[in-house]
Amino acid sequence: MSSFYPNYDLAGRIGHTKLDSGVGGIPPARIGRMEDPAMPSFGTVLNGFVDKFNTELNAPDTMLKDYMSGSSNVDVHDVMIAMSKAEININVMTSIVGKVIQAYDKIMQIQV
Predict the structure, then answer these.
(1) Residue of 30, 1, 25, 5 lying closest to 15 (CA atoms)
(2) What is the pLDDT of residues 27-52, one digit of tens each?
C-alpha cells in the first residue's frame, strides 16, 4: 500500500447496525474492504502516456524517411494519417498542459 494513504482500520471502527444482520432475508448492505486496488500508480500511467505521445509524435518522421527512401510498405496516405494523429496528439497535450496550469493557478489562489 502506498505511504500516501493513512492506514486506518475503518471496518473495525464502524459499529454494527441492522444493515449488517441481513434481517428478513435481505443480504447485508456493507461492502467488503479493498486493501490493495489493482491500479497502476500515477507515475506509471503518466510515463506510459508520455512514451505513447513520443512514439506518435516521431511516427510521421520515420514513415516519411521510409517513404522517401523508396520503401514499398509505406504509402503516402499512411504518412498523412500519421501526421494527422501527431497533430491531434499535440493539440490534446497542449490542452492538458493548459488545464494543469489553470488548476495550479487556482490552487495557488486558495487562502489558507
Answers:
(1) 30
(2) 656 566 556 667 788 788 888 888 98
Specify whether the backbone of 90 is left (phi greater than 0), alpha (psi in -120 to 50) or beta: alpha
pLDDT band at 14 (very low <50, low <70, confident <90, very high): low
Q: How many angstroms separate the CA atoms of 45 and 79, rounded?
A: 28
Distance CA 87, CA 98 (A): 17
Nearest to 76 by CA among 60, 88, 91, 87: 60
pTM over 0.70: no
- Separation CA 107–CA 102 (nearest Å): 9
Contact 37, 4 (CB under 8 A): no
